[in-house]
Here is the input.
Amino acid sequence: MARMKFLCDADRCIECNACVTACKNENDVPWGINRRRVVTVNDGKPGERSVSMACMHCTDAPCAAVCPVDCFYTTADAVVLHSKDLCIGCGYCFYACPFGAPQYPRVGNFGSRGKMDKCTFCAAGPEQDSPEIEYQKYGANRLAEGKLPLCAEMCSTKSLLAGDGEIIAEIYKERVTQRGYGSGAWGWRTAYRETVGV
Amino acid sequence: MQDKQQAALSRRNFLRAFGGASTAAVATVALTPTEALAYGPGQEEMRARYQETDHIKAYYRVNRYPEHK
Here is the structure.
């Protein structure tokens, strides 16, 4: 059985944020919520790297472990989903998640946050038989349409990989073997090889 | 005088009886064991949605390096 995974090839990510925009557009994500975001380390310095982050659909998901109403479930293809009908917006999953994936639509009095929202790997939610309600609550169900998450499909530098974990790991391994240690994507030598002194 | 006393007693009895009955009703509801409503996703929700279509195969192909011929 294929296990769905995201893998961001940080050597290729150019921090264009197109994955973030595509996700918001495809899933009609409301203001204040980003299911995906691009994190940049060493910004503006040599060695700068950007990584596109969202829910990583953990095998033993910590969000599911701490949820007091047990609203999370993992599908047969290893996508971690949740039921917004059960979620009480307590925020435990936000503190448990190492990637900061769970998001909340509002900040209200007495700490009310609204129902948690997160990346669904474009697999929507439990309402499989009512697509309109499902779309309003969770967004698109591209996986059921035989497609992959839009963020990965439209990545211009092919940095963000999604799909069967074994296949995308193989693709990444092939890239690393081809380009060697580091990408060489920094500096003039990328274009001019060793012919230019820096 | 006697009638007045009886009327007063019956009013009190009524309130006592009513109060007792409502307390008993609340206690009955609170103590009746109900089935826990934990979320149990069904087979339909847990089923795999992924299918390796031509669209997805094309995605994998373009993410690889082109094959040298």
